[in-house]
Amino acid sequence: MMMLQNILQINSGDLLRIGRKALYSILDEVIFKLFSTPSPVIRSTATKLLLLMAESHQEILILLRQSTCYKGLRSLLSKQETGTEFSQELRQLIGLLSPTVYQEVEEQKLHQAACLIQAYWKGFQTRKRLKKLPYAVIALQRS
């Protein structure tokens, strides 16, 4: 696991180049190590590795949130011991997987899309008014 963590720290883009099945296998192995091993060193490394993977790649974070394979991951993580030396990483991982953070990100994307649509609409309206402006000036000068 340390080797995988070092690879991710050096070049995190390599993780998305592997196939989907291999990515599922890696995630399954890391999650298995996290929950099955009594050793706090291995559990700490697995937690840090999951956190690094989730933070560095949005696709992996979405996969961990929405895939049926990892449906109960957040609840299992919240049941872990919080008094350990890696509890900060554990809380960060739980925070990333929580639906409130995900909903906030989705709402922010929707807000940005709405602002973009409004900006295009206002620009269209302004251009339309500017096209009619010479005719209005001519009509005003004639009267």
TrEMBL record:
GO MF: calmodulin binding
Gene3D superfamilies: 1.20.5.190
GO cellular component terms, A-Z: cilium
GO biological process: cilium assembly
InterPro entries recorded: IQ_motif_EF-hand-BS, IQCB1, P-loop_NTPase
Pfam families cross-referenced by the UniProt entry: IQ
Name this protein carries in UniProt: IQCB1 isoform 5
